[in-house]
Amino acid sequence: MTSSLAPTLAIIGGGQxxxxxxxxxxxxxxxxxxxxEAQGGSAAQVIVDHEVGDYRDLATLHHITRGCAVVTFxxxxxxxxxxxxxxxxxxxVRPGPEALVHxxxxxxxxxxxxxxxxxxxxxxxxxxxEEVAAFGFPAVLKTTRGGxxxxxxxxxxxxxxxxxxxxxxxxxxxxxxxxxxxDFRRELSALVARSPSGQAAAYPVVESTQVDGVCRxxxxxxxxxxxxxxxxxxxxxxxxAGALGVTGILAVELFETTDxxxxxxxxxxxxxxxxxxxQDGAVTSQFENHLRAVMDLPxxxxxxxxxxxxxxxxxxxxxxxxxxxxxxxxAMARDPFxxxxxxxxELRPGRKVGHVNAYGDDLxxxxxxxxxxxxxxxxxxxxxxx
Length: 386
Ligand code: ADP
Fold this sequence. Notes:
By secondary structure, the chain is of the alpha+beta class. Helices cover about 30% and strands about 25% of the residues. It folds into three domains: about 10-95, Rossmann fold; about 120-180, 2-Layer Sandwich (Dna Ligase, domain 1), CATH 3.30.1490.20; about 185-380, D-amino Acid Aminotransferase, Chain A, domain 1, CATH 3.30.470. The strands form three sheets. Strands 10, 11, 12, 13, 14, 15, 16, 17 and 18 form a nine-stranded antiparallel β-sheet that branches. Strands 3-2-1-4-5 form a five-stranded parallel β-sheet, with helices on both faces. Adenosine-5'-diphosphate (ADP) binds near residues 150 and 266.
C-alpha cells in the first residue's frame, strides 16, 4: 500500500519567507520541518515541527533534514560545501549548490551572466582604490558576498570614497566588485518558477521602488513598460533559470536604463520581496509555486487576477511609534479589500515587519490604498488625533 501522506520538506532559515511558505503548505497538505535561527522567530511561530540551530553547522543541517525528501531555503547563506554534503547524503537540495552560488556571490554571478551574454552593467573585480580609479569613477562598489538590503553597497566618486568598501571586504574576507553607476529610469523585477523537470512559469514583470537599498513598493505589472522590454526581461529570467539549473523561484532584479535597455542587477533564488504581490494578485503565489517547484509538482498559473496589484512594505519608522495589531480596526474598516500580511515581528526602526497588497482596476486607487495602510501601520498617520 502506498502512503497518502506527502513527503516532508525541510526549510533552512526562519524568517518571513519561510513563514509565508507555510500558508500554501497547509493548503497542499505538505509537511514542513524548519531550522530557525531564533526561538519564537517569524516562521517558528507557525511551523510546529521546528528546531533552533545554526545553519553553518553541518551536523545541525544533517539532523534537521533527516527523513526529509527535499530541502529548500529562506535565505542564501548556507555554505556551499554543506549543500554538497547534504546532496551526497541523498537529499534533494533545491535550489542546488551549483545554482545557488550565483545568488551568493556577485562576482561569480557577473562572470557567469557575461558568459551567457546576458546584459549586465560594466563590471570588474578590484583589489585597490587605484584599480577602481582605473575602472572609472563614479563606481558602485559591492562586497561579493554577504550583502543584503543595500548593506555592502557603496557609491564611490573618488579614491577616498573607496576606503569603507575595502575595509569591510577585508574584515569579512570577501572581494569587491566594481560596477558602472547605471543611469536608470526605474528598477524592475522578473520572477520565474522552475521545477527540476524543467517546467517554468514567468510572472508579469513588476516595478520596484527601493529606499536606502530596501524594497519599499512594488507595482504589478510595471506601468507603461514597453511590451518588447517586458518580453525581454521574462526571456532573460527564463534563460538564466534554465542555464543555471535553478529550482524554485528565481528573482532577477533589473534596471530599466534611461536609454531604454534592461540590465541585470542581481539574482535571488527564493521567494522575493518583489513577488509578495502575487499572494493576492496572482492565480498562484510565488510561495505556492516555490513549493510546487522544489517538490517537482506541476506549476500553477502565474497570471494576474486583477489589472493592478500594489504591494507596500511596512517598515518600522525612526521611532517606535508604529502600530501593528492596534492598527487593524482602522485599516480594515477603511478598506475591506485590503490584504494585510504581518510577520509576527516586533516593530524596530528600519525592520520589515509586514506588507499590504491592494488590487483593482485603477492604479492610482491601489497606490493610495496600499500607501495609506502601510503609513498607518508605520505610525506616520493619525498619531496627532490620539
Ligand atoms: P543588495 O544585495 O543589498 O540587494 P544590490 O546589488 O541589489 O544589493 O544593490 C542595492 C541597490 O543599490 C539597488 O537596488 C540599486 O538601487 C542600487 N545599485 C546597485 N547596483 C547599482 C549600479 N550598478 N548602478 C546604480 N545603482 C545600483
